[in-house]
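Researcher: Structure for this, please.
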Amino acid sequence: MGTFDNIIFQLALLTSLTFGWSLLLKNSRTADQPAQHQMLELGMATLIALVLMRYPIELQEGFLLDLRMVPIALLGLRYGPAQALLAAVPSALYRMYLGGVGMLPAMVSLGGLLLVLTVAWAWSVRSHQSIQSIKWLPWVLFLPVVAGILMLPEGPTLLWKVFPVFYLGCSLTLCLAMMVLDSRQMQLRANEVVAQDSLTDPLTGLLNRRGLEHDTVQFYGGNHVLTLDVDRFKSINDRFGHQVGDDVLGTLGTVLRESLGLQHRAYRMGGEEFVVVLRNKTDRQAYRWAEDIRAAFTERVEMMHKHLPEPVTVSAGLVRMAAGEGFHVALSRADELLYQAKSQGRNRTCQSETRKEAATARLVLPSEDENLLRHDLN
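Model: Predicted structure, token format:
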């Protein structure tokens, strides 16, 4: 192939391989990519650089020009200079194997690229911003090639003849490659939003029943399962309207979100029913947490709706999952305690006092009569 054909071929090849690279991405945020996928990206950048070296543009004997620095720079912009260095080693070794008058200038150019990446990365860390947010960086990364070209016997002549085309080609191709990966991450971000919306209750901002089913594999013996139900919620809706009812549910969701921390999870099961899973708490701490939530909720609703004639309260059932106990069995036990709290006058937390019931518990669906009775107690 001629020089022009080689340039077009390298651009097309680099664009195609970058698209393949984008398919490796699994998360919308670069920092969230799993380690194994980062290694795949490292391998892809290395492979692209080596493939591009197979179709160089030979400007003079021993002086080969290609776009191998672009995937190395792209990897450096995503994960830092250390990853870029790892990707550069195979292509540097291969270039040394090829030899020729351009070998040393090629090493200098590559070293300059890594140096610029390192300085930019250090500056981004110090200024607490992403290196990818430095918009001018792609236009600076390939300037060290000037030093490499000037090392050649006809360096000054080649500089004006070669560098402008090479510089623009590398910079524009790098920007194009970044756009390909960015568009893929935007697509992943949109998919994540849709997936998150399907697991989230829009009224309270908590996870919904589907979110709970998605998370059940994470729960194990020692976790506490807390069921919550707003007392006389149907009466609130009937007497004061659905807007007040929605405000009440939204308030409980807000109180739960503010109190959860990173370890615990809360879900709205539907209607006025909520489930919370608490981790790393003793029985006493879990009970105290439930009581604090109930008190904070009642106080918050009273502040928001002072026209309500009586406090809005919550009943709760609390159990500790036994070792080897299924989550749904524990949830059934918590529901039984919630029913007990309702039958004892509401506005309280009933907690399992023994663990014997956990050993003998079975997941039993309530009968129709029991469902009617529970509805009356709400």
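Researcher: Any notable elements?
Model: The two ends are 81 Å apart (CA to CA). Strands lie at 57-60, 63-65, 224-230, 265-270, 273-278, 314-320, 349-351.
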